[in-house]
Design a protein that fits this description.
The complex is a heterodimer. By secondary structure, chain A is of the alpha+beta class. Chain A has helices at about 5-25, 35-50, 80-95, 95-105, 145-165; strands spanning about 55-60, 65-70, 125-130, 135-140. Chain A contains 5 helices and 4 strands, in the order ααββααββα. A 4-stranded antiparallel sheet of chain B has the order 2-1-4-3. In chain B, α2 (about 45-60) crosses α5. The mean pLDDT of chain B is about 90. The chains are: A alpha+beta, B alpha+beta. At the A-B interface, α2 and β2 of A face β2 and α3 of B.
Chain lengths: ~170, ~180
């Protein structure tokens, strides 16, 4: 066998191995850190201070798992669960829950989406967008100004969480 | 005549005095029956201090831990999942905090009391194992009650550090962070 064909054979095997290992590789997704969630919390609290309210909030990651949960002083019993469902809605449909509410109004083509378990057509959930990717969401319940107010509070939180994003990979337990 | 006027005046005053006293009694009864319960509870601000205290104590040896703070009712006031923590750690932290709150003791102490063969000081079996079957509790170390006078008005739970012992040490540091506010 000539030297060239040896080199070619070796290159082919190396290429096949590389392809195989590529196929078996898991996908890498960016994760929402606790530091980002805390940044969201501080921003929502700053909004609430201005607002004179004490809202509840939830921050969830892209898989819908809770990263942070806070129940405001004197919150009504429904507030915390509602905050989580608003965040769930914004994350899974990749839009503000108030926009999803309008998009799924009875009579509209997407109205059946309201049957999605846990999703809720109420404003106050805002996705956290890093680059072009939704990496989680913030849900707020209990500000002044109803669904619009909750949306504004959640937007402040989502912006702060996106700004606190780091390219550093997150250590796994 | 003078005597009559004086008697009339005394009688009038007596009627007023009785009326006033009766009105006062009614007011007191009303206040007593309509009074709502008031109690002390863990605020958002305190919950954040507790969580920060626990995380600060933990972070040297354990980069990622999950911490939960529950209030007087055992409901979550604040919860923060550690980076990369598995979902069940969130549940574990919450349940540790709940268990410490509802049984008013560190979960390590509760674990000892609810063991199958746990005995009291007289050597008699106390058999509290059934408490472990309650909803929302967890038989793991890492939960500390937030005590005010003789009552638990909240709890803090930590999960995800090296061991149950270190979880509980971190939780204790969290409780200590507001100890000067609760006495």
């Amino acid at each position: 066998m000539s030297r060239i064909s040896l080199v070619l054979t070796a290159a082919t095997i190396a290429g096949a191995l590389a392809a195989a290992s590529g196929a078996a590789q898991g996908q890498t997704t960016s994760s929402l850190t606790s530091a980002q969630a805390m940044a969201a919390l501080r921003a929502v609290q700053a909004y609430a201070k201005n607002d004179g309210t004490d809202p509840s909030l939830a921050v969830i990651d892209r898989d819908g798992n809770i990263v942070l949960e806070l129940r405001g002083n004197g919150a009504a019993p429904h507030n915390i669960g509602l905050a989580e469902r608003k965040a769930f809605t914004a994350n899974t449909f990749k839009m503000k829950s108030i926009e999803w509410r309008d998009k799924t109004m009875p009579g509209k083509p997407d109205a059946d989406q309201r049957n999605t378990p846990k999703a809720i057509p109420l404003g106050g959930g805002v996705p956290i967008v890093v680059g072009n990717e939704v990496v989680g969401a913030v849900g707020v319940s209990g500000t002044k100004g109803g669904q619009e107010g909750d949306t504004a509070g959640a937007q402040a939180g989502a912006d702060a969480a996106a700004a606190a994003a780091s390219s550093r990979p997150v250590a796994q337990n | 005549m003078d005597k009559l006027i004086r008697n009339l005046a005394v009688a009038t005053l007596a009627v007023f005095a009785v009326g006033a006293a009766w009105a006062l009694v009614q007011q007191l009864v009303k206040t007593a029956t309509l009074q709502s319960l008031s109690g002390n509870d863990i605020s958002v601000e305190q919950a954040l201090l507790v969580a920060q205290g626990a995380l600060d104590a933990c972070k040297k040896d354990n980069p990622t831990v999950t911490v939960a703070v529950v209030d007087h009712e055992g409901d979550v006031r604040f919860l923060l999942r550690g980076d990369g923590a598995s979902p069940e750690m969130v549940d574990a932290a919450r349940r540790k905090a709940y268990t410490a709150r509802t049984f008013r003791q560190a979960t390590s102490a509760w674990l000892e009391r609810t063991e199958m063969d746990a005995k009291d000081d007289a050597g008699k079996r106390i058999d509290l194992y059934g408490q472990r079957m309650l909803d929302g509790v967890i038989a793991e170390k890492g939960g500390i009650p937030l005590l005010w006078h003789a009552d638990a008005i909240g709890g803090v739970g930590v999960s995800g550090s090296k061991s149950g012992e270190t979880d509980e040490a971190c939780a204790k540091a969290g409780a200590d962070a507001i100890a000067d506010q609760l006495f």
